[in-house]
Amino acid sequence: MQQQFDFSGKVVFIAGGTSGINLGVAHGFAQAGAAVAVMSRSQDKVDAALAALKAHGGEVFGVAADVRDYAGTEAAFKAAQAALGKFDVLISGAAGNFPAPALGMSANAFKSVIDIDLLGTYHVLRAAFPLLKKPGASIVNISAPQAFIPMEFQMHVCAAKAGVDMCTRVAAMEWGAAGVRVNSVTPGPIEGTEGMKRLAPDQATRQLVTDSVPLGHFGTPDDIAQACLWLSSPLARYVTGVVLPVDGGWSLGGVSSSGAGMKQAFASGGKSATAKP
Predict the structure, then answer these.
(1) Is residue 265 included in any domain, yes or no?
(2) For position 274, what pLDDT does the model report?
(3) Of the candidates 134, 204, 228, 248, which lies 20 to 30 Å from 91 by C-alpha distance?
């Protein structure tokens, strides 16, 4: 990644920051000079992420906690604040997904995605707020096109991410007076992520998705990192309550037109409706 922003002396906390898009965002902030804290459920993933992030030369901190557990999430934030100081930037990215028809998933399967994506986002925002630097802090929630575009086999994610975007808007209104900006980034098809492996598990489905993106290719975690860096920089000082698609134009119509790809994904490997995401 080309360094275009300077976050030297800043502290960034990334919930879900040990894999996929969120780890890419962590690398972006670490390379830009920030002290970076990451959190996820798996201690092994936390350890691996820290080993990779240390290569950028800055301070890093990691903690294992489940965003569904408020007490554990709150304790994780307090531990990171004690180690690195108050947070200039919060990235909330913990998420779960799997393709399943509405009548083919269990109630528990639906609830598991709501608990991780929506309740987990609220827990992260609520636990982090007292530890943010005010004024001046930036929060970025990682959303999804399913927040505003209905997609077959994604009722659970559509419901959860729509809630996440509303949390973004309401928090932007309530916390603006404290000088805290709150925005969402909506990634499109991103290369090398677990989510796309589940939703496009074979080459034929990948091609359907690729063809549905107006720019004609998948994005990378770096594309999302650059958006988060900009939103958290002084260049975006007057931007709050925004849901920003970073998707190659996919949400302009490609998501709906790639319904055949979602059906293929379900037929190929998404039939386990009771599996946890």
Answers:
(1) no
(2) 38
(3) 248
